[in-house]
Amino acid sequence: MAGPQQLLRPEGCLDEVVLHVRPWTDVVDRAGYDPRSPYAEDFWLPVLGPSTLWLLRRFAAGFDYSPDGFDLDLAETARSLGLSDRANRGSPFLRALNRTVGFGMAKLTGPEELAVRRRLPPLGHRQVGHLSPALQERHAAWRASQPVTAGPAESAGIIQRGPARPAAQALGRPSGSPSLDVRLSRHARLSAERPRGFGR
């Protein structure tokens, strides 16, 4: 299957390049974690990298406004993330976009269409192994603190667990000190401005 970089200009800017983003709904959508959650910030960030996680958060914000999908202006999105809008294959923005596909968070479903997960799954064993020793211990403590519940995720090999917030607090985040993603979510709820990069 073609990667997103094959949809875009190999040179020049991303101006006028628009992808239609639609939700990728499966068992992870019911059992996973919002890209703006403490779980994503604590454990997926070191795996995906900051640009890729921020891009997934932008997708999540787009679904908040348009649950069935939206058009993503790539140049505007790249600039709003503080990345170059150059379309060469080595560009940080295209690498972030390609990493969403490489890590199974998105898939190409048409020549100009991307299906994106609204939620991220728990880290797999191999991904946990790439975390620092301290983060591996924190993840093990998080797993031990979560009640296991039966559900559709179990049949798909994903253990469904409770919300990440209590675990994040138990793992050292001071009570009453919301994480950056929580503060941004509050700001987004208070703002009526349409997210940058969505629509034309």
Commentary on this structure:
This protein has 200 residues and is α+β, with helices and mostly antiparallel strands. The chain has one domain (7-188). The protein contains ten helices and four strands. The chain has helices spanning 27-31, 38-48, 50-65, 74-80, 92-102, 125-129, 133-145, 152-155, 164-170, 180-190; strands at residues 18-24, 70-73, 106-110, 113-117. It has a four-stranded mixed β-sheet with strand order 2-1-4-3.
Task: Give structural attributes.
alpha+beta, disordered N terminus, globular, 200 residues, 10 helices, 4-stranded mixed sheet, 10% strand, 45% helix
Q: What's the arrangement of secondary structure elements?
A:
Blueprint (H helix, E strand, L loop, with lengths): L17 E7 L2 H5 L6 H11 L1 H16 L4 E4 H7 L11 H11 L3 E5 L2 E5 L7 H5 L3 H13 L6 H4 L8 H7 L9 H11 L10
Parallel strand pairs: 1-4
Antiparallel strand pairs: 1-2, 3-4
